[in-house]
């Protein structure tokens, strides 16, 4: 028996909130990645790790906020917590690998392609691992072509986002990139959901149970709190709004005073003609 799927049981509320969560995670992650390129090597791993966790938490939160609106009319839905949190770990780790590659190798060429591919596969893996954590009286089946399309969307979105992170520009640039990234991640999610069909195990009457929102809301508290904390770190960092270094890194000029390399010899050359006068002045004794 085919299950009756409704992915928008709360109307446009869940898609819009999910999109905002993806944008928030993307904005924080991109700014942290950009920030890592403006600091010394000792601080770079910390900023890249924060960016990885922000993007991973953002897309994971986006996925499960959207899943609050997903229902199957004939059966209640439950979620396996270990599998659900495993999908969060996969997202953070794989996104982190891609971000660290771009953070240390640069957002161009092979490094960008490799980092974008790994990050995109991480986003897709998070999505389908999270779907595998759903428990219901039925079997999930996917259309292979639509699943492939969702994976391609994830890879293209991740590559574009990492390229944008490598462009050390202003705050508005990253905001625009995060909006595009949020749209792409949401598009990947709903493309993957369009590939889904549910085949029920029996023909039982519809049963009641906890709503997806009541089941998922407690799981979202931790990632949401982390995103708020990461947002506070980014907000109060002095260089984040500017998007560029305020001065040369200290490590490039150890022990050298700032004024030692700023001589102005533009008016020193006139000293040479005085030496020439000295030679002409040697004729003076012959005139006496």
From TrEMBL:
Signal peptide: none annotated. The keyword Cell cycle does not apply. Residues 265-282 have a biased composition (Basic residues). The chain crosses the membrane at residues 12-34, 46-73, 85-104, 111-130, 142-164, 171-195, 215-236. Residues 10-199 form the MHYT domain. Pfam families: MHYT. Residues 247-288 are annotated as: Disordered. It comes from the Bacteria. PANTHER family: DOMAIN SIGNALLING PROTEIN, PUTATIVE (AFU_ORTHOLOGUE AFUA_5G11310)-RELATED (PTHR35152). This is MHYT domain-containing protein. It comes from Streptomyces shaanxiensis.
């Amino acid at each position: 028996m085919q299950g009756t799927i409704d992915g928008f049981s709360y109307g446009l509320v869940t898609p819009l909130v999910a999109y905002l969560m993806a944008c928030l995670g993307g904005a924080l992650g991109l700014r942290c990645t950009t920030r890592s390129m403006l600091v010394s090597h000792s601080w770079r791993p910390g900023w890249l790790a924060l960016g990885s966790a922000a993007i991973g938490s953002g897309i994971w939160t986006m996925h499960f906020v959207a899943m609050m609106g997903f229902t199957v009319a004939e059966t209640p839905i439950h979620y396996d917590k270990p599998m659900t949190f495993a999908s969060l770990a996969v997202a953070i780790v794989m996104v982190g690998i891609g971000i660290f590659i771009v953070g240390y190798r640069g957002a161009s060429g092979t490094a960008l392609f490799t980092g974008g591919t790994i990050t995109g596969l991480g986003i897709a893996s998070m999505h389908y691992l999270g779907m595998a954590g759903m428990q219901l009286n039925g079997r999930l089946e996917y259309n292979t072509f639509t699943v492939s399309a969702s994976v391609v969307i994830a890879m293209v979105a991740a590559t574009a986002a990492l390229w944008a992170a490598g462009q050390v520009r202003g705050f508005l640039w990253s905001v625009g990139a995060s909006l595009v990234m949020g749209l792409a991640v949401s598009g990947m999610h709903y493309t993957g959901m369009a590939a889904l069909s549910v085949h029920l195990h029996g023909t039982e009457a519809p049963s009641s149970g906890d709503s997806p929102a009541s089941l998922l809301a407690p799981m979202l508290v931790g990632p949401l709190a982390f995103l708020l904390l990461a947002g506070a770190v980014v907000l109060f960092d002095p260089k984040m709004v500017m998007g560029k270094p305020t001065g040369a890194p200290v490590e490039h000029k150890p022990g050298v005073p700032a004024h030692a390399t700023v001589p102005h010899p533009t008016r020193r050359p006139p000293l040479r003609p005085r030496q020439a006068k000295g030679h002409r002045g040697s004729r003076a004794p012959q005139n006496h």
